[in-house]
Amino acid sequence: MWYILSGVVGAVIGSFLNVVVYRLPKEDLKLWDPPYSFCPVCKHKLSWKDNIPIVSYIILKGRCRYCGAKIPLRYLLVEILNALAYVFSIYLTNDLVTVISLFGIFSSLIAISFMDLEYMGIHDALNISLLFFSFLFAWRLHSIVVGLVSAGIGVGIFLIFNLVRKGIGLGDVLMIGAGSVALDFFTLDIALLVAAISGLIYSIFAHKGLKLGKTIPFGPFLAVGIATGVVIRIISL
């Protein structure tokens, strides 16, 4: 029962995350204005039956009901991933505070990943959200001091790397700082290693090797690393 409920809640929050990813980077839009969903192409206001998480995308076959424009696959992926993340959180622990912190961390990481993939940038609001839930996670595990030290180490590593070789954006630096609060020294190492390896694999397959001067959105790979570190922290307790 709890798995089903958490999955439904995750899908609903995932639908909101799509709004966040689409609207936050745009100066002419606010999360609350307009207070309804609309098609990005024809601007038609969407009805409730167009906004059922996961289900509407499948029924509409990935196209707008009103103009027939293709709906980006990102909308479906975010809802599914967030639903699965919430179910997985319930599986990992039955402690309410920890579950809430995991919900927040995973949702923040998912939104960051897709925003960085689409716009090559990470909005400060998402890093603040990640920081808040990382603090909550660390507090519940009674390790805020360890988390702050880990964050300092992570930020330091990224700043040094940025000085040696440009390519790490300020958003990535803030992201590792926010996410590392939920980690300890061991899981921070794991997070950085996973991020580096996954980023390298992506560059090889997507770009046939990372060419000099070629940049890739590092947020998604850093998100995978941070999520891996958080999960390891939970299961190692």
Describe the structure.
The structure is a single chain. The protein has helices spanning 2-23, 55-59, 73-92, 96-119, 124-140, 144-164, 170-180, 185-207, 219-235. The protein has 237 residues and is mainly alpha-helical. It folds into two domains: 1-79, no CATH class; 93-237, no CATH class. Helix 1 crosses helix 3 (73-92), helix 4 (96-119) packs antiparallel against helix 9 and helix 5 runs parallel beside helix 7. 37% of the residues are buried. The model has no long low-confidence stretch (mean pLDDT 89).
Q: Report how far apart the termini are.
A: 25 Å
SSE order, as H and E? Answer: HHHHHHHHH
What is the number of helical segments per DSSP (H or I, 4+ residues)? Answer: 9
Derived from helix and strand composition plus strand pairing, the structural class reads mainly alpha
Helix percent reads 55-70%
Give the total of beta strands.
0
**How would you sum up the major sheet?**
none
Oligomer: single chain
Rg from Cα: 18 Å
Provide the residue-averaged pLDDT: 89
Bin the strand percentage.
under 5%
Q: Uncertain segments of ≥5 residues (pLDDT<50)?
A: none
Apparent shape: globular
Number of domains: 2
Helices and strands in order, then pairings?
Blueprint: H1 2-23, H2 55-59, H3 73-92, H4 96-119, H5 124-140, H6 144-164, H7 170-180, H8 185-207, H9 219-235
Helix pairs in contact: 1-3, 1-4, 3-4, 4-5, 4-9, 5-7, 6-7, 7-9, 8-9
Features:
237 residues; mainly alpha; 2 domains; globular; 9 helices; 68% helix
Summarize the structure.
This protein has helices at residues 2-23, 55-59, 73-92, 96-119, 124-140, 144-164, 170-180, 185-207, 219-235. By secondary structure, it is mainly α.
